[in-house]
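Need tokens for this chain, all 279 residues.
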Amino acid sequence: MSENPSCIVVGYDGSASADAALAWAASDSATDLRVVLVGTAMDPVLGGYRHVMDRAVEEWRTAATERVAALGRPDATIDVRHGPVVPELLQAAEKASMLVVGSTGHGLAAGTLTGSVSQHVARHAPCPVVVVRPRHSTVVDRIVVGVDDSPESAQALRFACERARRTGEGVTAIHGYFSVLAHVLTFDGAESDVADRQLAAAEKLVRELCRDCAAEFPDVEIEPEAIPVRAGQVLVDASRAASLLVVGSRGRDAFAEMLLGSVSQHVLAHAQCPVAIVR
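Here are the structure tokens for all 279 residues:
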């Protein structure tokens, strides 16, 4: 991942979820803010021009202008586009440091697509995507990042540390893994020894990842954790006490271009704080 510091792009459609996404993005005052509104010009069924979208987009523009002023970001750029929502957002994010969207969207915008806008952009965006979900706790000051031995994991950890350096938060790097042996009751202790070795290997992996990142971010507190629980579940549990959950997207094969990894999909659906998908 090579982060372009040019701007944060926020998809905005006037919904409460979009307001939350805009507030999250606006809190990063070190980066330029670009608010993108997309009106779908053609009815996907009838093929006619949707004049109702003109009125809706003007309402969204007014709401976005008022919102950025209230958030102390009157310098934000508001960009109105017409076309399919996801392609327009992806094009707007081509030179962005990240794309931020709400977890749900306005009916007019979301209704132009099969599935949610957030899921689609998380799969295809050329930059990290933050999907702003409601936070379980608003008093915590730590970023949780899921790590394993993949290149995407190292990118996710670096992204978490870059944000933590700007926000002053700590980072908890969690390696969740499932071990059948860790859940088996034995009488001779043999399986238990294997489970202990698995835990030791997992702890070594996450410590080495954190050590490498700590050298680049000496001012960020990074805490390593290895937990013998499936990664998706342990990260969702950890998100209850996090300001942001960061995970990597998966590989670059033919299917990866269309689908997120199972862990990414799970946390997008169930996390209890904003989620960043990093590629």
